[in-house]
Amino acid sequence: MRKFFINFLRMPVTGSLFAIFAAVIVGAIILLAAGHNPIRAYAGLFYGAVGQPRFAVQTIIASTSLILTGLSVTFAYKTGLFNIGVEGQFIIGTVAAVFLGHFLKLPPIVHPAAVMTGAMLAAGAFGAIVGFLKAKFNIHEVLSSIMLNWVAINLANLYISTERFYQEVGKAHGIQNSASIIFLHEMKRTPEGIAQIRELGFLSEILLRTDVNFGIFIAIAAVFFAKFFLDKTSAGYALKAVGANKDAAEFAGINIKKYMVLSMFFSGAIAGLAAAVHITGVSPNTVTLLPAFQNYGFNGIPVALLANASVIPNIFAALLFGGMNYGAGYIQSNHGIATEIIEIMIGLIVFFVALRAVCVKIANIIERKKYGSSN
Amino acid sequence: MVLLISITLMYAAPLILAGLGGVISEKSGVVNLALEGIMTIGAFAGAAVAFVTGNAWLGFFAAGAAGGGLALMHAIATVTFKADQTISGVALNFIGPGLAIFFTRILFGAVRSDPVTARMPKIFNIDITLIIGIFFVIAMYIFLYKTKWGLRIIAIGEHPAAADTLGINVSLTRFLCVIASGVFAGFGGAAFTLSIVSVFMPNVIAGAGFIALAAVIFGKWTPHGLLGACLIFGFFQALSIHLRGQDLPVPLQIITLLPYLLTLIILVLFVGKSVAPKAVGVPYNKEA
Question: Cα A142 from chain centroid?
Fold first, then answer.
């Protein structure tokens, strides 16, 4: 029993569960201080996230880009790089996706595939700049990423402000129908189609009132592909070796500079895929003028941290944060609780993730108590 | 020209104050990625207290206290529990703005505060926050390089185990440096809401904390280097604002991104070898 408890405390997932639990407790104290009933608030949050089929679908949609941005951050982390530039790479990806989605003339399925490939290449190249600056000039990736995020947001705004690319001031051209990955996208655009969908019963509510799309399958496939790449290919092994011990990797003959650039390229490309899925899957299917960062990329950082920088758990971490973000709207309109409580909760979860080593420490103390006396 | 200089100085003031927080923390070996979040809570506390009391100085000190309070969390996590400094910093960048806007809604019923009429004074048309910033640059230079306490901090950031064997309390020193870092970043946030915009709103800091962090690295972790870096960045911002008023054949967005691009180019040209404190980012574990 005790042995089981010690092992349980040492499991990585325990640390993440501890972080969520501790954040719920502290969040409840903050809610109480602000005069809200925490139990009602959490119940409302849960209901708002998954309480109705339509809410659950919106949660999945909100989680889709989080899975991918979380994966992006995780991927760079494997090479020992902290990709805070995921925001800028996401922005560059959205612009590339909108451009290709509007100007390419391709049949369905081929068109979204082309949009995603293009967005991945553009965002990947943008990410690779960070890797290059680090490898060649020894500029810290956090520093160059911060600057490049601002460059990206201004480039996107430049695109949106260029007459050739915008529909109206502040909003770029939308994508063609052929580029959309929304379920039954064509049918949803005609009155006859909508009438047909109405006959589908409870599914019609989901189909008509949400942007339910194929993105979640793409995101999950990307996670498993990344897992395969990192675990089963020599390039993936080299990337991880650079992250685990740079000097040892170099001594073993791995070109660490090359793999730094490559890692940031892949990380950026995954952020670009997140952007393309977002543009082709969620209304208004275009980019608008950004006065400030929208945090689509930044929100991937807590996902990756809760996932403990391993690949598959990104899916679960993203579902949790996606549900919290979507459910926040419900408690704001029904319980009058400001949505910022979610930002605070996410911050608290990450904070306790930082403290998760405490679990291991407790395990060590218990073990020492048990075996210490016999030594 | 006068306008260019005054905008430069206006932009530099919050960066200098927050950047000093980055210097003191990183010199002792603790990365403080949370300058942005701490500045936001400082900007809020400064505006809220100045609004309620009608006294800008009280707001300014409250901002320092709020910043120090948030930094206490960072200190407990990274020094007491030896947690990952980057992760804790990321967390505070969510918690700080989250708390600030959460309480702005409760206090003002909206995501932005009412206009704050109490303002920090100006001396010869120069914001006092800038003068305070420059004063602390000089004070920190003297403290770090001319006093035994300062030299101990540097020793801890370079080689904590060696400092420990000489009887210096590594954990206590780091703990205090992180708190001081939060106080400075809180002041930096208040410099926005009490000297520049006179209102708290969600995007009031708009990346200044990260720019301050960049200025710390660019200034090679020294107070005087930081001052130079902040003035250069402030000048680029001023230049970009100045050019916006001109009738140039260049799109506005290109001019807006210039400060960031120029900073990157300067880094490529001049940063050279990294001179970060050797133990920065590494928790000190006495038992190990």
Answer: 18
Instruction: Indicate the pairing of strand A166-168 with strand A171-172.
Output: antiparallel
pLDDT digits (tens, 9 = 90+) for B246-284: 777 778 888 888 888 888 888 888 766 557 788 887 888
Backbone angles phi, psi at B108, to 5 degrees: -115, -5
Residue that has been written with the tokens 């509007």 in this structure: A102
Q: In A, residues 155-194, which contact B (CB 8 Å cutoff)?
A: 155, 157-158, 161-162
Start-end of H helices in chain B: 2-27, 35-53, 56-75, 85-108, 128-146, 148-158, 160-165, 170-191, 208-218, 223-245, 252-270
CATH number of the domain located at residue range(s) A51-336 in this protein: 1.10.3470
Domains of chain B: 4-270 (1.10.3470)
In the 8-state DSSP scheme, what is residue A162?
S
B262 in contact with A at a CB cutoff of 8 Å? no
- Phi, psi for A165 (deg, rounded to 5): -105, -5
Residue A172's H or E segment, with its range, is strand A171-172
Calculate how close chain B gets to A146, using CA atoms only, in Å: 7
Two tokens at B165? 């064997």
At residue B24's C-alpha, the angle toward residues B23 and B30, to 5°, is 90
Taking the C-alpha atoms of residue A178 and residue B7, their distance in angstroms, rounded to an integer, is 49
Q: Is the peptide bond before A291 cis (omega within 30 degrees of 0)?
A: no
Q: Residue A172 forms beta bridges with which residues? A: A166
- Report CB contact under 8 Å: B251, A344: no
Task: Spell out the domain ranges in chain A.
Answer: 51-336
Q: Are A214 and A108 within 8 A, CB to CB?
A: no
Can you give the pTM of this predicted structure? Answer: 0.90
Nearest to A90 by CA among A287, A346, A249, A323: A287
Cβ contacts of A198-205, under 8 Å, gap ≥ 24: A202/A53, A205/A53, A205/A54
- Structure tokens, A63: 């989680």
List phi, psi (to 5°) of A181: -110, 15
Q: d(Cα A246, Cα A54) in Å, to the nearest integer?
A: 47
Across-strand partners of B41? none
> pLDDT per residue over A269-285, tens digit each?
999 999 999 999 988 88
- CA–CA dist A184, A207 (Å, integer): 8
ipTM above 0.85, yes or no: yes
Residue position matching structure tokens 């932005």: B112
Contact of B229 with chain A, judged by CB distance below 8 Å, is answered with no
- Picking from B203, B201, B221, B200, the residue whose alpha carbon sits closest to that of residue B212 is B221
